[in-house]
Design brief:
CATH superfamily: NAD(P)-binding Rossmann-like Domain
Number of helices: 11
Number of domains: 1
Order of helices and strands: EHEHEHEHHEHEEHEEEHEEHEEHH
Largest sheet: 7 strands, parallel
Bound molecules: nicotinamide-adenine-dinucleotide, uridine-diphosphate-N-acetylglucosamine
Low-confidence stretches: none
Strand content: 15-25%
Structural class: alpha/beta
Strand order of the largest sheet: 3-2-1-4-5-6-11
Distance between the termini: 24 Å
Length: 341
Amino acid sequence: MKILVTGGTGYIGSHTCLALIAAGIEPVILDNLSNSKLAVLNRIEAVSGQRPLFYQGDIRDAALLDRIFQEQPIAGVIHFAALKAVGESTQKPFEYFENNIAGTLTLLGAMRRAGCFRFIFSSSATVYGDPKTVPLREDSPRASLSPYGRTKLMIEQMLEDMQQVDPRWSITLLRYFNPIGAHASGQMGEDPQGIPNNLMPYITQVAIGRRDCLNIFGNDYPTKDGTCVRDYIHVMDLAEGHVKAWQVCGEQAGLHIYNLGTGQGVSVLEMVHAFARASGLEINYKIVARRPGDVAECWADPSKAQRELGWKATRTLDDMTRDSWCWQQANPNGYEEEAHV
Ligand code: NAD
Ligand code: UD1
């Protein structure tokens, strides 16, 4: 069984390839390497013993997509490929709409031509906007706070409309909360380019000495300690959630929506302390102004995924911080360019 994994050399896609291989499913990766490196393929092979088929190219390239569907017996698609930096999206909205929305439409068009109707989409907790209440359920109101968030919301709506009129589609929307951590081997992890936007890679880069000090964006939120609260989830739990979603929903036409989170809210300060526990290092930090667009609290009610997919996050906060630190120590500069075999 082969699944096309767009964005499969990226952070979540690469870990999902490991989980697919472990489940006996063969990933075929399509990635334009705009935010990932070819070296990831060597690592997937080293960890799993299997080197995925790889097409270097773009989801907006309809001719390439048609060729992939002709060359490979693709049973379905897991669609990770997207631009994902919220701040950047406010500066470059056209690029975000073009890459994420036009790209997804091109991909869906190629799937229809190929008669392939099983689709899993990387959505995000960002589609809940600024939540009125937590925990968030799949039927909580949706809103968007940035062009990036709008791409996720609009793609969800497009997929819902398509599924409604064409019952051949099995569409699964997976709403990720905050993925962190790395494969326990330390060989694969998150490798952001430039200054990290997200909390965990920033913390690990301070710990390894690449950055001086963590800026904590605000301590005057109405939360347990004044810093923002999020639902951090281990990337391997998230990866395994995709396999379960494929196994359970792939066969069932319809629209399937799941939160993938732990259900636990962790504050920024709690995360800093958890990381200190895992690494034995104190993290230098200072409190600075709030970051525009941040919401105070966001965590999942993940019970629907447990009930219907039989999936539950099992890795703890200490597993997440330990594995992030292990990856960062073994790869202080992330994935370096490696000889390609
Ligand atoms: P990532 O940037 O590491 O991976 C995305 C991959 O897609 C990269 O390898 C990039 O090169 C590729 N790509 C981008 N545009 C492409 C295009 N037009 N054609 C082909 N390849 C393209 O990001 P990630 O953290 O692994 O996120 C994966 C997905 O999950 C994204 O859709 C993202 O929006 C979504 N998501 C991520 C998070 C998170 O915190 N990381 C949270 C919620 C949702
Ligand atoms: C961010 C995006 C969200 C996206 C998610 C996953 C914003 C506003 N939201 O979520 O749309 O789905 O990433 O990609 O960018 N923090 C610091 N210092 C830092 C970095 C972060 O204090 O250097 C704080 C933030 O204020 C936040 C928490 O840490 O309270 C988590 O931040 P981050 O990892 O960026 O994730 P989100 O903001 O939840």
